[in-house]
Design goal:
The chain has a 5-stranded parallel beta sheet, with helices on both faces. The protein is α/β, with parallel strands linked by helices and 164 residues long. The chain is 46% helix and 14% strand. Strand 1, helix 1 and strand 2 form a beta-alpha-beta unit. It has a single domain, classed as Response regulator (Rossmann fold, 3-Layer(aba) Sandwich). The termini are far apart.
């Protein structure tokens, strides 16, 4: 069965990287993603080093990230991944009990935060898709603003109705 999409819809999510240090949860997240995004390729990593290796050889649409990996822990994990991969939405899935962690992850660049205790297939898939959509919308909005700015500054004057 091939990929089908409406011409007005953004491309489907084709490749997701899941970074999680717990093998059972890594497999569960992978199963959720395969069930929710038919035909998706899911790459797995258990460390920041593995994330970097994966991303040097492949382009991904979304990164699912636990903040505690075998070689990195906390917001520093997210910061490293987000800084190395601008434009790729990161969804943080973590068991960190800090009540402020959601706010900190969003401020550090995550598109979404999902506590491990709240993982349910349908809502997880919807939040991953929404994170991707939100990132694409932000990118398109910034590009449009850049183009408008270029037009306005190209002749120092805003276009008038006579210029149309």
């Amino acid at each position: 069965m091939g990929d089908q999409q409406s011409p007005s819809v953004e491309p489907v999510i084709r490749h997701i990287l899941v970074a999680e240090d717990e093998p059972l949860l890594l497999d569960l997240l992978t199963e959720y993603l395969v069930a929710g995004f038919p035909g998706v390729i899911v790459s797995q990593a258990t460390s920041l080093a593995e994330i970097r290796t994966c991303l040097t050889t492949a382009s991904v649409d979304v990164i699912i990230l636990d903040l505690k990996l075998t070689d990195s822990c906390g917001i520093a994990t997210l910061t490293a991944v987000a800084d190395d991969n601008p434009g790729v939405p990161v969804v943080v899935v973590t068991g960190d009990p800090d009540p402020n962690i959601a706010e900190h992850t969003i401020a550090a660049g995550a598109q979404d935060y999902i506590p491990k205790t709240s993982l349910k297939l349908d809502s997880f898939i919807a939040r991953v898709q929404t994170a991707r959509d939100r990132q694409q919308w932000s990118r398109k909005t910034l590009e449009t603003l850049r183009q408008v700015s270029e037009v306005l500054h190209s002749n120092g004057q805003p276009p008038t109705s006579a210029d149309s």
